[in-house]
Amino acid sequence: MAKRDYYEVLGVARGASEQEIKKAFRRKARELHPDSNSDNPDAEAQFKEANEAYDVLKDAEKKAAYDRFGHAAFEGGMGGGGGPRGGGFHQQGDFASAFSDVFDDLFGDFMGGQRAGGGRQRASRGSDLRYNMRVTLEEAFTGSQKTIDVPTSVACASCSGSGAEGGAEPVSCPTCSGMGKVRAQQGFFTVERTCPTCNGLGQIIKNPCQSCHGQGRVEKERSLSVNIPAGVETGTRIRLAGEGDAGTRGGPSGDLYIFIEVAEHSIFKRDSQNLFCQVPVSVASAALGGEIEVPTIDGGRSRVKVPAGSQTGKQMRLRGKGMPALRGGGIGDMFIELVVETPVNLTSRQKELLREFDELSAENNPRTHNFFSKVKTFWDEMKG
Ligand SMILES: [Zn+2]
Ligand SMILES: [Zn+2]
């Protein structure tokens, strides 16, 4: 295919001024913007062509060469490095991003580097939602079914989410040609504003849907049944695909994430799959030994043998009485930890008995005895 004349490509006369060339290219660029050319397969090629033409004609030196030799000026390794912008448009998928790079070059100087056409949105995916759910340890043990009310926006039923009455397709905004922004001259400056007609969307709906005022979605509280699997922990996330906010104008819905927080339990402490339970025992019980009854997370009870002479901190393991693993696997254990309690608020009779007991039990507290014999050695050595 023969190369078209650069002036013809941009639609300007030979001898057009630098300003006229720039203006013509901007007009072309807007026309060929990928957002408003989804149904024009030639837009990319046309834009490349226009960009190439502009790249030459904006440059006084290249322009002079072109005016003299035509396309031959840039063939056969002459004329400054091949295509414009290093030929950045090779990948089909990069057209839009390459385009916006060029757009920044074109219009960026008017906006202090702010990206032209930014903030436009069309059909887009809805937001993900987060829902914090507190469950009891018992619920985490058994798993449970919960119903939650999620305030969310859902696709409007009247317009099937399109925002247009009767489901008509939105059209490119005539005020801003789909750019979402308009520019106005103010003195020496060109200022850019969000398009007042389409509020920056770049599209308008001829007959907005009455139910959703053209938004394509409506606020609604939905009841959702959530299955909380056994074994959840604080920090467990449950993803409900497609249960988040509805997309705008027919875009897909986001996801809903349930963030689990397992409440503290009054009796049990949890460490992943294991449970810990501190059980106080009297001095006499710890000394004599015997059986105690302890609660289990399933609501039952287990009898545990306390050996005679148990100290505070003594642990006993109840196998398989802990928490289930979230995704199958075994069940953890429960650990009983004894806390020997010193009796308080003694009557004079009790004090009397204890004193009598203490006098008889000099050899019954091996740790105490051991400690004070070490202390004695320490003092003796300090004295030298
Ligand atoms: Zn507009
Ligand atoms: Zn609607």
From TrEMBL:
Cofactor(s) listed in the protein's UniProt record: Zn(2+)
Residue ranges of CXXCXGXG motif repeats: 156-163, 173-180, 195-202, 209-216
Domain J: 5-70
Classification via Pfam families: DnaJ (PF00226), DnaJ_C (PF01556), DnaJ_CXXCXGXG (PF00684)
Function, in words: Participates actively in the response to hyperosmotic and heat shock by preventing the aggregation of stress-denatured proteins and by disaggregating proteins, also in an autonomous, DnaK-independent fashion. Unfolded proteins bind initially to DnaJ; upon interaction with the DnaJ-bound protein, DnaK hydrolyzes its bound ATP, resulting in the formation of a stable complex. GrpE releases ADP from DnaK; ATP binding to DnaK triggers the release of the substrate protein, thus completing the reaction cycle.
Entry protein name: Chaperone protein DnaJ
SUPFAM superfamilies the UniProt entry points to: Chaperone J-domain, DnaJ/Hsp40 cysteine-rich domain, HSP40/DnaJ peptide-binding domain
UniProt GO cellular component terms: cytoplasm
PROSITE patterns: DNAJ_1, DNAJ_2, ZF_CR
Any one GO molecular function term: unfolded protein binding
Subunit structure, interactors included: Homodimer.
Residue intervals of every CR-type zinc finger in the record: 143-221
Start and end residues of each CR-type domain: 143-221
Domain notes: The J domain is necessary and sufficient to stimulate DnaK ATPase activity. Zinc center 1 plays an important role in the autonomous, DnaK-independent chaperone activity of DnaJ. Zinc center 2 is essential for interaction with DnaK and for DnaJ activity.
Cofactor binding notes: Binds 2 Zn(2+) ions per monomer.
Location relative to the cell: Cytoplasm
GO biological process: DNA replication; protein refolding; response to heat
Ligand binding (Zn(2+) 2): 173, 176, 195, 198
Entry keyword annotation includes Transcription: no
Record's keyword terms, sorted: Chaperone, Cytoplasm, DNA replication, Metal-binding, Repeat, Stress response, Zinc, Zinc-finger
Residues given in the record as Zn(2+) 1 binding sites: 156, 159, 209, 212
InterPro entries: DnaJ, DnaJ_C, DnaJ_domain, DnaJ_domain_CS, HSP40/DnaJ_pept-bd, HSP_DnaJ_Cys-rich_dom, HSP_DnaJ_Cys-rich_dom_sf, J_dom_sf
Family: Belongs to the DnaJ family.
